[in-house]
Amino acid sequence: MQVLHDAPLAPLTTFRLGGPATRLITATTDAEVIAAVREADDAGTPLLVIGGGSNLVIGDKGFAGTALRIATSGFELDGEKLELAAGEVWTDAVARTVEAGLAGIECLAGIPGSAGATPIQNVGAYGQEVSSTITEVIAYDRKTRETVTLTNAGCAFSYRHSRFKADPERHVVLRVRFALEDAEGLSAPIKYAETARALGVEPGDRVPLEKARETVLKLRSGKGMVLDPEDHDTWSAGSFFTNPILTDEEFAAFHARVEERLGSDAAPPAYPAGDGHTKTSAAWLIDKSGFTKGYGSGPARISTKHTLALTNRGEATTEDLLALAREVVAGVRDAFGITLVNEPVTVGVEL
């Protein structure tokens, strides 16, 4: 277990932003993770858990406490059952399941971060969410000081949310278990329209696993959503805002604002989101509010490839990023009456 003092945290995040931690511990086994958490809790020291750092916005002043970097490893495949250590690189794990001929997470290829973060955020993209395949999450419960196993239902998954996100101080994810599908080398049914179009198939069709994975990686790369140290469009947290889910009444008011602003023929994106609710597109809202690709003149700007990504052009500070985010939130609220919610976790700062 490595321990560093006054340790920079910016290199551990995909934004490459944020000040140092008072202490940084890197744990490579579950036992080391639990020991570090217990030590911090016993001492009353603030604790920040870091996986792949792809969903973190850390303040310029850093973190006054212990940052725990989970660098555990473990990829165990038993038939169609998969268990991943929290520190496993997610996109590598997806590639290995595709190589093994198992379907269920192939459309989540290219998503940066660690396996342990996937249930926290209920990571999803291109028609798949991890909540569809996760069977159990093994975690350390900081309240009971025990290792617990949570079922899928016990994780309380919803859109980009879970019990782990709702109560971030309670559990530290150690391992994640999945139930995948052997579809004789084929993918799960393709659900996302953009993916189906790129594959030249109809929604609901299956395609060869590797073809599905490669297509998603190509789509993500075109939007700057696959990490590349040389491409500042990928110095981001991916999608910075979640897609708003509106009640029928809220959507009707929103639709009226759209017609007022863009004309009676304008139709905002609308997707069913459960009884009495409709999901719309944050990217569409941002673009139609005047924040187009590449927007900004400072060191933090909107990606040149996708309006939903805020990026560090190389010399930004966290405050630069937050100023841009606040400008976007205010502009969308003024234009359409919807308040966007940030997807990344903020540390020591607020949007």
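(the above was protein one; protein two follows)
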Amino acid sequence: MGIGIVQVAASNGCQVCLFDVNEELTQKSLHNLENTLQKLAQKEKISFQEAEDIFNRIKFCTELSDFKNCDLVIEAIVENKEIKQKVFSDLENIVSENCVLASNTSSISITSISSILKQPSRFIGIHFFNPAPIMPLVEVIPGLLTHNTLADEMYNLMKSWGKVPVIAKDIPGFIVNRIARPYYGEALRLVEENIATPQQVDQAMKSLGGFRMGPFELMDLIGVDVNFSVTTTVYKDYFYDPKYKPSLLQQRMSEAKLHGRKTGKGFYDYSDNAVNPTAEKDDALYQQIFMRIISMLINEAVEAKRLKIASDQDIELAMQKGVNYPKGLLAWAKEIGYEKISQTLENLYQEYQEERYRQSPLLRKL
């Protein structure tokens, strides 16, 4: 993620300082970026001169003090609040008073991270989606202590970088990672209960919903461990709301280091010559899978609308541009019918008697 953000900034004329405590990893990332830029030039997406210019705008920094002249610092390290706070606390003593400090966190409270800073008004969330050079969405998240003009300034900056920015409230998961939780959570529950296989869930969502990737394919791409960490953070930060309860299956997968593509095996096997099971087609089951997951997703989008987490337009944009949903969820709800969505959730609630399936108060009124 870090090197992706570096590429975006350098491609838009910025002088960029790149630092990581692991110098070997940094050098490897820079080497990979140089190869990526050369490939873009070979495909005539940029010129060879542009590729060279972009790479020359990036400076390999060996210590945090190299950031002293920066106007904006974007952190993209491990999802751990205490570690992030330590880094920003150190940075605050290095950069100028006018430097904007930003976190690429996908789920940790911006207000919480900034609470230890001497000048929290210049702190904000700027959340890119992976891979950063390709995915257009950027969530801009002001905290309670963020200066009231900074969100608009960062929104305009991201727009000038060719991104599709949206402004979100500082709530757990922001827009995308909050609304998208059921795409993974409900899929995992269907498998945990032996209602369907991962392959059947993926095939149902792709064939009936038009999703580019099924939930299990996407978890393998994101990283099973990363996805589990985000779910756990959202669950904890919402005071253990059952809607966001993590999956025991996903925890066990994380513990076993079956993290997906990056480890060679997750819900699918990515090793050479691996043969993965195929989905056994069952039209009735596929319909059940699709309606269960899409109803949970729409319920989250409607609740986000009710709580004014973002504008309707930004909610729709976020899900389409951040996680490649084929349609905006609010528009999809109108297409399917709010009454049908409501009835699906009511049936699930009656079956399980769990708060997990409670409906947004707004859903029944639409």
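Reviewer note on protein two: The first strand starts at residue 16 and ends at 18.
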